[in-house]
Design brief:
- The chain is α/β, with parallel strands linked by helices.
- It has 3 domains: 89 residues, Rossmann fold; 215 residues, 3-Layer(aba) Sandwich (UDP-N-acetylmuramoyl-L-alanine:D-glutamate ligase), CATH 3.40.1190; 149 residues, Mur ligase, C-terminal domain (Protein-Tyrosine Phosphatase, Chain A, Alpha-Beta Complex).
- Helix content is 32%, strand content 25%.
- The chain has 14 helices and 23 strands.
- The strands form 4 sheets. Strands 8-7-9-6-12-13-14-15-16-17 form a 10-stranded mixed beta sheet, with helices on both faces. A 6-stranded mixed beta sheet has the order 18-19-23-20-21-22, sandwiched between helices. It has a 5-stranded parallel beta sheet with strand order 3-2-1-4-5, sandwiched between helices.
- Strand 20, helix 11 and strand 21 form a beta-alpha-beta unit.
- Helix 11 crosses helix 12.
- Keywords: ATP-binding, Cell cycle, Cell division, Cell shape, Cell wall biogenesis/degradation, Ligase, Membrane, Nucleotide-binding, Peptidoglycan synthesis, Transmembrane, Transmembrane helix.
- InterPro entries: Mpl, Mur-like_cat_sf, Mur_ligase_C, Mur_ligase_C_dom_sf, Mur_ligase_cen, Mur_ligase_N, MurCDEF_pg_biosynth.
- This is UDP-N-acetylmuramate: L-alanyl-gamma-D-glutamyl-meso-diaminopimelate ligase.
- It holds the Pfam family Mur_ligase_M.
Length: 477
C-alpha cells in the first residue's frame, strides 16, 4: 500500500479498530472512521489522536469516497455504510488482512492467543520488550493490543525494532471472511493461554474452537516457539502436533516454567518462577490474582526464549501497570471502591472475583453484571455463570443487552440466575438498567465495599454514574 491514502474504518471504536486507526496514522495515512455510538476508552484514544469519528453510520461519511475502507468484524450486511461501499465498489479489506499486508511485513510476529488473558499478556510482553530495548534498541517493540496498556497510555505503537507483538483474536475476521483474525498473523512465536468454549454466536461447540486454535498452532514454523498453559487438557490437545518447540507454564512442578510460593501481600503479588525445576527469578507484580501470575509467567517465558535478558523481564513485571478495564479502579468514594473489569465469559468473571477476594479479603464484594458479550447473552453457560457470581457477597444483574437479537430459547435468563444465587444464600437482584442499579445500590453501599462492574461494553456509563451518585449522597449527608 502506498502512503498518504485516505482510509475509512467502519466500526472504528472497537478496540482493535481504534488501535489500527492509530497505526495507520503513524504510517502517514489520513484516517477517518464511523460508529453507531462511541464510548471510552477507545473514543478517548481517537480523540487524543485527532482522528474524526462520525456518528451514527451514514452514506455521507463516505463522501467523497475514501481510497480504502476497513470493515470491522462487528459490521454486517444491512449496515448503511457497508451497503454504500458495495454499491459504489469502493475498495475494502478486513482489519486482519490489512495488518498482515501493511504492518507485519519485515517484523518478527509474536502472537498472544487464547480464550482468556490475551490483552493483559500482550501488554505485559510489550512492556517487557520496551524495558529491554533500553539496553538493546533492536528490541523496541511495535504492538497492537485489544485495550489501552497503562504503561504506554495507548493500545498501539510502531517502532523500528524487530518484534511486532499482537493480540491474536479468535473471533471472525469480517462479514466476507468468517475465519479467525489470528489466522492472518503467521506467528514466529506464540503464547496460548486458555482454550474454552466462547463466542457462541460463531462457534457451534468446543470442538470448533479447538479446531481454530489447532490451525493457529499449525502456522508456527519449525524454528518458532510456543509457550502454552499447562493446566488445561484443551490446550494440551491443541499443541500436541506442533512442529516447533513447545514450553509449558503453570503451577505444576512438571511445567518447564513453574509458579511456586505464590502469595499476595503489601498490595503486590509475589512468586518464585522456576525454569526446569530450578529457581529462575523472584517475580513481583502490582496485580492480584493467580490468573495474572499466569499471564506474567507466559510473557516472561516467551521473552526469555526470544533472547530477552532476565533482568529486563523482572524489572518490567515489577513496574507493569495493568490495562484499562482490567481490574481498573475507577473511583473511591466514601470508602467504596469501584472496579471496572472487561467481563466476557464466566471463567473470566470467576478469576476477577477471586482476585478481588485475595486483594480485599475483609471487604464486602459486589458483582454488578451486564450480560453483554455474545457468550454471556446466551444460556449456554448459565450454570457456570451462577457458580462464578456466587463468589461475591452481593450480585446485581442488568437485563440482557439487546436481548431481542437472541432467540428466546437460547437467551440467558437473568431471573433464573438471580433465583439460583438467592437459593445459595447470595443476595442477588435483577434490575433493568444502569440507572435503576445506581438508584438501588447507592443507599446500600458502605465504606469498605468493593463494587466490581462487569461488562465488555459501555454499560450506559454506569462507571461514571455510580461514583457521581455516591458523591451526591455524601454531599447531602
Amino acid at each position: 500500500m502506498q502512503a498518504k491514502k485516505h482510509i475509512h474504518l467502519i466500526g472504528i471504536c472497537g478496540t482493535a479498530m481504534a488501535s489500527l486507526a492509530g497505526l495507520l496514522q503513524l504510517k502517514g495515512h489520513r484516517v477517518t472512521g464511523s460508529d453507531q455510538a462511541a464510548y471510552p476508552p477507545m473514543s478517548d484514544l481517537l480523540q487524543s489522536l485527532h482522528i474524526p469519528i462520525s456518528e451514527p453510520f451514514a452514506e455521507a461519511n463516505l463522501q467523497p469516497a475514501p481510497d480504502l475502507v476497513i470493515v470491522g468484524n462487528a459490521i454486517s450486511r444491512g449496515n448503511i455504510e457497508l451497503e454504500y461501499v458495495l454499491d459504489q465498489r469502493i475498495p475494502f479489506q478486513s482489519l486482519a488482512q490489512l495488518i498482515h499486508e501493511e504492518l507485519l511485513a519485515g517484523h518478527e510476529s509474536l502472537v498472544v492467543a487464547g480464550t482468556h488473558g490475551k490483552t493483559t499478556t500482550t501488554s505485559m510482553l510489550a512492556w517487557i520488550y520496551e524495558v529491554a530495548s533500553r539496553r538493546s534498541p533492536e528490541l523496541a517493540p511495535s504492538f497492537l493490543i485489544g485495550g489501552v496498556a497503562e504503561n504506554f497510555g495507548t493500545s498501539f505503537h510502531l517502532r523500528e525494532g524487530r518484534p511486532f507483538i499482537i493480540e491474536g483474536d479468535e473471533y471472525d475476521t469480517a462479514f466476507f471472511d468468517k475465519g479467525p483474525k489470528f489466522m492472518h498473523y503467521f506467528p514466529d512465536a506464540l503464547i496460548l493461554t486458555h482454550v474454552e468454549y466462547d463466542h457462541a454466536d460463531i462457534y457451534r461447540d468446543l470442538d470448533a474452537v479447538k479446531t481454530a486454535f489447532k490451525r493457529l498452532v499449525n502456522l508456527v514454523p519449525r524454528r518458532g516457539r510456543i509457550v502454552a498453559f499447562d493446566g488445561a487438557e484443551n490446550v494440551t490437545e491443541c499443541v500436541a502436533n506442533a512442529f516447533c518447540a513447545v514450553e509449558r507454564y503453570g503451577f505444576s512442578e512438571k511445567s518447564r516454567w513453574c509458579i511456586r510460593d505464590f502469595r499476595h501481600n503489601d498490595g503486590r503479588t509475589h512468586w518464585t518462577l522456576l525454569r526446569d525445576g530450578a529457581p529462575w527469578a523472584e517475580i513481583k507484580l502490582n496485580m492480584a490474582g493467580e490468573h495474572n501470575a499466569l499471564n506474567a509467567t507466559a510473557a516472561a517465558a516467551l521473552a526469555a526464549g526470544q533472547g530477552v535478558d532476565r533482568e529486563s523481564i523482572v524489572e518490567a513485571l515489577a513496574s507493569f501497570r495493568s490495562v484499562k478495564r482490567r481490574l481498573e479502579v475507577r473511583a473511591v468514594v466514601d470508602g467504596v471502591t469501584i472496579i471496572d473489569d472487561f467481563a466476557h465469559h464466566p471463567t473470566a468473571i470467576r478469576e476477577t472475583l477471586k482476585a478481588l477476594r485475595s486483594a480485599h479479603p475483609e471487604s464486602r464484594l459486589w458483582a454488578v453484571l451486564e450480560p453483554r458479550s455474545n457468550t454471556l447473552r446466551r444460556n449456554v453457560f448459565e450454570e457456570e455463570l451462577t457458580d462464578s457470581l456466587a463468589l461475591a457477597d452481593r450480585v446485581v444483574l442488568a437485563s440482557v443487552f439487546r436481548q431481542e437479537s437472541i432467540p428466546e430459547a437460547e437467551r440467558l435468563d437473568p431471573a433464573a440466575v438471580v433465583s439460583a444465587l438467592n437459593a445459595r444464600g447470595v443476595q442477588a437482584a435483577m434490575l433493568k438498567d444502569a440507572d435503576a442499579i445506581v438508584a438501588q445500590i447507592t443507599p446500600e453501599l458502605q465504606a469498605g465495599d468493593v463494587v466490581a462492574i462487569l461488562s465488555n461494553g459501555g454499560f450506559d456509563s454506569i462507571y461514571d454514574k455510580l461514583p457521581r451518585s455516591l458523591q451526591q449522597r455524601s454531599a447531602t449527608a
